[in-house]
Structure formats: structure tokens, C-alpha cells
Amino acid sequence: MEAAADLARAGKGLLPYVTFYQTAGWAGSFPKDADLRKVAAAIAPIAFYRRSLRFPDSPPGYVPTVFCRPDNVEYNPRAIQYTTCPNSVPFRAMVLAQVRRQLDGGALGFFVDNGYDDDVAARSVCESAHHAHYYGDHLTAADAFLGLLLEVSCEVKKRHPNGMVMVNGGVPAHASFYGLTLGDVCDGQLWESYLRSSYSTPKEHLADWQSVYRRSVALERAWHTAPPRKMFTLSYPWNRDEAYFCYCTAKLCHLPWSASLGISDPDHRHFGGHFGTYPELIDLRLGPPLHEHEHGGTQQSAIYYREYQRGLVVVNPARTEQTARIPLGMVRRCRNVFTGQDTEGESLMLQLPAESGRVFLWK
Predict the structure, then answer these.
(1) Contacts with 242 (C-beta within 8 Å, 6 or more apart), sequence order
(2) What's the distance, CA 324 to chain centroid?
(3) Selection from 22, 18, 113, 117 nearest residue 62 by Cα
């Protein structure tokens, strides 16, 4: 509540973190060797259940979340969480009660982590006999998740018409709550770990640039359909070079971008660390793209670039240094944000390091 009040005085709002996918925060988490009868009793009112399911070290019928299975990089045997049933009557009551308390405390909306794309539960119907189902007995868990999210969004909009519900993650492609899809029941989604993740190991930290770029282009194209869909991107760059690479890649497709949550692991030694916020990029205001339908920018050999009202972004996704001359169409004076150097001319002659991005602001 203090944070919400402080932000309100600054003309800003707070989006508290919630998850409607994992039992932590609702029924707790459990060590691997916990008494399975006690675990089942604690989670039964709110957890997804199918009688045929079996997972090691888990009560029969219940599903550990994807992060809590031994083959997942985030697996922690001291804190096993289970998959919720968004259709559960008691779980819905708990969620809406907490939502109203948070809004009473000054929250402007919610950041809903994880989405609901569980590979086991999302496409299945819960068979629990320990709780009733609120939205309909034949909905999949992902369908019911959309119904719950709709109710949360309605609570937010009743208090704050400009409030926001942002979802990190998604649901299966064909999930639907009586015709409504994810984009209909929230204000936007977060693409977390955009190009660079918070993992401290190179294999998990790095994403394939071409795959990220293709998806980014598809997202920008989708914005021009009705109704528009909004995607926000969040990267965890290890250093300034990676920050520019991530930012400029996002801006090739006019995607909102941010970096990390603070500097808690500057040497990227720990799993899930935060490596820096890079306000020099977050605070940039490029204005709208000069050519709205130039999705993904212009490719010149291995280089990609895109012009905005107040500047230009350039990306070299190749694993080798690249040289390029970018035409400006007129004599322009601009500043290289990365180096702080000014230049003037009808074109930019650039030597771009491998896997790099640069921003130029018109002067």
C-alpha cells in the first residue's frame, strides 16, 4: 500500500504480481518428501485433478507445475508447487477477494505471471470431486483461466478505467471462454526473456535471433488487425552490448521494451539473476516509425534498420562484424547513443560488431 501511494503521488501506478497457475501464495509449496496425504488435503480445494495422472513424489491425480518437475531447469525439490484449477469455486473466491483487497490498497491493475499453457492441464478438463466448477463442467483449465482473467479485468476496470491487466505467458492457441480469447480479457502480454533470459548459463541465456525476429514481425503485423493485440518485451542482458542488441531488435518491430528489474547479479553468476536496467535505453523516446507498415524494418545484406520520427535503429544479428552504409535521404546530423559521438551526412557508414545494435538520434 505504501508503494502504491508513493507511485500515485508521482502520477504512476502499481501492478502487483499474482499467479493463477501455481499453488504458491494460495495453498503453499511443499518439499519433495512431504506427506502426500497432507499435500493432497491442502491443495484439493484449488488444484487441477485427473484420476489417471501420476507424477513422481506427488499425490495421485495432481500435476506439479512445469517449473516443479525434475527435468526443468528451475526444479527445486524443497518447493514443489502444483497446478491450479481456475474453474474451482473456492479458488475463484480466493482470487477475487485478493484482487479487491489489492485494489482497495491502491493497485492500478495486476501483473499475472505464468499464463496457463501447462502441457498437461491446460487442454484437459478437471475431474476433481473436492471442489465445484464455477464456469462450466466441460471447460478445459485454459478456457476457465480466461473466464477468471475476465472477472479480474472487470474488477480492475470498475475501479480504474485506465487500469491494466498484463499477462506474462499465454494459453493454448485454441483456448476460448465462450468465444473470448486471451486478447479480449487482458490489456496486453509480456514476452519475458526477449532475446536474452535471466539464466546464468549461456545455453539458456541466448535465444536464436532469427526466430525472435520472425515472431516479432508477426506480432507487429497482428497489431494492424482488429482488435489490436499488445505485446511488451522484457530482456535480461548481461551487459551494455547485449542491452543494445535486445532493444534495437525490439524496435525493428516497434515493440515496447524494458530490461531486467534491477542489478542484483552484475556478474551473472546465479540462476535467475538481474543484471541491469539500462535507463539510457528505457528513457529513449523515438516517436512513431516513419513507415508504419515497414514491419521488421529494412534489410541490407546482413544488416537491418528502421527509421523513426526522432531517430534510427540498426541491428547486426550476424556472428561476425559487418560494415554497412545506411542512406538517410538527406543531410542529417545525428548522435550515436552508444558512443555519444555526433556525425553529419547523407548516409551513415557503420562498422557493427557481431550481434549488436545501435541507436542514432536526430539533432
Answers:
(1) 196, 235
(2) 33
(3) 22
Q: Give the residue-averaged pLDDT of 10-39.
A: 92
In the chain, which ranges are E strands?
17-19, 109-113, 164-168, 188-192, 231-235, 257-259, 298-300, 303-307, 311-316, 322-336, 342-352, 356-362
CATH 2.60.40.1180 in the chain is located at: 299-362
Confidence (pTM): 0.87
Q: How many CA atoms lie within 13 A of 104 on its CB side?
A: 6
pLDDT in tens, 329-342: 999 999 999 999 99
CA distance 185 to 20: 14
Q: Which fold has domain 2-20+87-282?
A: TIM Barrel (3.20.20)
Give the model's pLDDT for residue 10. 81
CATH number of 299-362: 2.60.40.1180
Q: Phi, psi (5° rounding) for residue 242?
A: -65, -35
pLDDT tens-place string over residues 70-110: 999 889 999 999 999 999 999 999 999 999 999 998 899 99
Whole-angstrom distance, CA of residue 129 vs CA of residue 172: 25
- The C-alpha atoms of residue 358 and residue 363 are separated, in whole angstroms, by 16
Start and end residues for every CATH 3.20.20 domain found in the chain: 2-20+87-282
Q: Which residues contact 53 (CB under 8 A, 6 or more apart)?
A: 60, 61, 62, 63, 120
What is 251-296 written as a DSSP string? HHTT--EEE-SSBS-TT--STT--B---HHHHT----SBSSTT-TT
Residue 225 CA to its chain's centroid (Å):
21
Residues 6+ apart with CB under 8 A from 188: 164, 166, 167, 229, 230, 231, 232
pLDDT at 229: 67
pLDDT for residue 1: 72
Residue recorded with cell 534495437:
248
Total residue count of the chain as it appears in this document: 363
User: pLDDT by residue (tens digit) across 128-185?
Assistant: 999 999 999 999 999 999 999 999 999 999 999 989 999 998 999 999 999 999 999 9
* Partners of residue 263 on adjacent β-strands: 275
pLDDT number for residue 58? 96
